[in-house]
Design brief:
Oligomer: single chain
CATH architecture: 4-Layer Sandwich
Structural class: alpha/beta
Strand order of the largest sheet: 7-4-3-2-12-13-14
Helix content: 25-40%
Radius of gyration: 19 Å
Order of helices and strands: HEEHEHHEHEEEEEHHHEEEEE
Length: 309
Amino acid sequence: MPSSDRISKVRKTACHVPFDDSSKLILMSDCHRGDGNWEDTFAHNQTLYYSALSHYYAENYTYIELGDGDDLWKNKSLLDITRAHNNVFELLNKFHEKGRIHLIYGNHDIVKGNDKWLKKNFFTYINKQEDKKARLLKGAKIHNGIILKHTVTGDEILLLHGHQADFINNNLWKLSRFLVRYLWRPLEQLGVHDPTLAAMNYSKRDLIERKLIAWVQANKQMLIAGHTHRPVFPDAGRPPYFNDGCCVHPYSITGIEIANGEISLVKWSVKTRPDGVLLTGKDMIAGPNKLTGYFSYNKAPCQRPPDRC
């Protein structure tokens, strides 16, 4: 199946989430939360990520994770991951209790698309304070894709991870997982990078982006993805393909905010005050731009009636 058909299939089966100009959404992806060992690429940004999400929780944002939240290629056990990043999962639970979280799976956590795996592995974690298992995101659904549908204009934004445009990491994901877990992870400990990783293979990343942009142009549909780890924020009038970047950049994390009918690309990093005190802060990389400047691409008919996730 061509990558364009795989993306279209996601669109047809995507869960619909309503939003309007009063909605506040933060989109992040590619956290690659690991077990806390030194090759855990999320570990060096854990505090930064927690600080950013605490801000969005306090400001009443809804958190949408566009896949690869947990690295279940390198790690077999989700419990090991939740034990290493306990405070992060407690915060995600708080979003869930407020009904303000939506999750998409990517290639590194594609097993979350299996309901049996979810029931067996996903809905509990180790609460360090009480030293016992506790409920984790109980009843949450993990989606292949989500469509944000504007309740006033009817315009749509397709959200997906983006590995659907990557043959190796989509069709051959089991082989890729085997190679990462048993070959590239040991080599990574010696400083060798995984050549199948889109974020490290620039020609592969460019090819994936061209496929995603081609789909946007062919289907007249605004799309936001992750997977490549490279932030993308087009000017109005250009094909509306966006990428939220990742949470494993050196010393920073990126995300896409949608609020007040506008879209922005933001970066969180550690800053230093004149008195030497360290603090986390947010910078606007691009935008805010009005969503209406991109909605002109949304001319394709709806594929299914909207429903709530």
